[in-house]
Write a structure and sequence with these properties.
The chain is α/β, with parallel strands linked by helices. The protein is 33% helix and 17% strand.
Length: 250
Amino acid sequence: MRIYQEADYEAMSRRAANLISAEVIRNPACVLGLATGSTPVGTYRQLAAWNQRGDFSFREVRTVNLDEYKGLAPTHDQSYRYFMQENLFDHIDIDVANTNVPDGLAADPAVECRRYDALVRSLGYADLQLLGLGRNGHIGFNEPCDRFVKETHVVDLTDSTIDANARFFATRDDVPRQALTMGIGCIMSARRVLLIASGSDKTDAVYNAFCGPITPQCPASILQLHNDVVLVGDKAALRKLVEAGVPVCE
């Protein structure tokens, strides 16, 4: 595992974007696993700027997103398909047909989950999987629970996740209570995992994920078993790791 400590959010975003762009340059037809939420926005902005400058191309890249809210149409301004279009896909030279997000309006969510698992498997899983980190240690929408769920599945969102996402909706009551999420098995099948974290509100989650026990009560802790993980965080998010003596790169 490699850990990069950056001064602030902007530096963290540049570092993450550099690692992703290096993967695309090395393997122009790579499969990227992508995440949503506020943390990767700066990373996507940097990738778009470099792509528009002509530094590299996304034309052959295929993407698989981690999750989608159950019940939201792709045109809803809080759906994760909409998020990806607004923050990345509309600003780069990717073929939208090569981008994949679970269908939040699927008539049978269980069937959609099986379809999505089969799709990710058919692509050979992600060459690089980008992850954010929830305050409660969730990755994707894999919430703390009594077991690690391997397959794509429908999950009931915890109160802490609903509270964290309420800022994106008109009211807390508007936040969907369920989501479709890629399971731990798909995430762990990625060849490389890149986890990004920013801010003092992620300090405990980062510490628990990498210094605590491996437990489904902190889903990100499973990453301790992956053989190629890169953590990029700002000083606030990595504070407890540094205090515990975990070596980091500057």
